[in-house]
Hints:
Blueprint: H1 22-33, H2 47-70, H3 77-90, E1 94-95, E2 108-111, E3 114-116, E4 131-140, E5 143-152, H4 158-177, H5 184-197, E6 201-202, E7 208-210, E8 217-221, E9 238-241, E10 244-246, E11 252-254, E12 262-264, E13 270-272, E14 275-279, E15 284-288
Helix pairs in contact: 2-3, 4-5
The structure holds 2-amino-4-trifluoromethylsulfanyl-butyric acid and cobalt (II) ion (CO).
Amino acid sequence: MNFGRNDECWCKSGQKYKKCHMEFDEKLRKLRNQGHIVPPRNIIKNQEQIDGIKKSAQINDGVLDLVAKQIKAGMSTAEIDKLVYDYTVSHGAIPAPLNYQGFPKSVCTSINDEVCHGIPSEDIILKDGDIVNVDVSTIYNGYYSDASRMFIIGEASEEAKRLVEVSREALRRGVEAAKPWGYLGDIGEAVQEYVEANGYSVVRDFGGHGVGIQFHEDPFVAHVGKRGEGMVLVPGMVFTIEPMVNQGAYHIFVDADNDWTALTEDGSLSAQWEHTVLITETGVEILAK
Ligand code: MF3
Ligand code: CO
C-alpha cells in the first residue's frame, strides 16, 4: 500500500506519513532494490503492540524468577510445570506452550543432552549435576513473549558449567550484534564465531523467531551465518535470540516416543538461553529475559 505524504502513517502513530515512516519506507525500498531481504510491514510492531509485548514479558520474567527461586534437586519437572501454570494463570495470562500444536504442558524443560522441547513429567526428577533449560512463553492480552534460562542443579561438572557459561555469553554477543539497519547474519555470525572458538557447536535445526502477535512469526533467526547477510533489521522488529549450543556435534534427533523432545545425536550436553528483543531506533532492547 502506498501512503500520501499527509495521510496518517500505517503504524497508527497518529502522525502524518511524511513525519513518521516515509523515510523508513524509502530506505527499505532502496535496500530491496540492492538485493537485500527486507522485513514485511506485518512484522514491524507499532507502539501499542510493543507496550503489549512488554507487559507479557514482565509476567514471563516473573515466571522464570519464580522457577529460579524454587528449582532444586529432587523436584520433578511436573512440579516446575505446575509453578509455571499457576503463576501465569494467576497473573491473568496463558502459558503459550499449553496445547500449542499438541504440546501437552505449560513449559519446556530440557535436561543435559536434551536440546529443547523437553516435556515435563512426574517421572523426571532433577538430580545433582543436571543442567536444565526452562523455556517459558506467555500470552497476555493476546501478546506473546518468550525466554529461557539454564539452571545448574547442585554441583555440576566443570565442563557442564563451562557449556552453560559459553551459551549465555553466546546469547549476549548475539544481542549485542543486533542493530537497526544491520542484518540477521550479524547475529548469526557473532554467535557462531564465539561458540566454535570455544570448541562447541551451534544447532542448525532450530533458531529464534519473530514473536509478539503470534508465538512464531517471521523471520527465522539462525544462530549461524555471515555478517551483512539475511534480513535487514529495522526498528519495531521483535524476535527471539536463543542459541542452542552443543558440547559435541550440532546434529540432533527428535524423540520418536513423543515427537517433541530434541536430543543431541552424539549424547553430548546441550545448553540454551533465550531473550525476546526489540530493535529500536538506536539499538536493541531486551524485552523478556
Ligand atoms: N519456547 C519455544 C521457543 O523458544 C517453543 C516451544 S513450542 C512448545 O520457540 F510447544 F514446545 F512449547
Ligand atoms: Co523461542
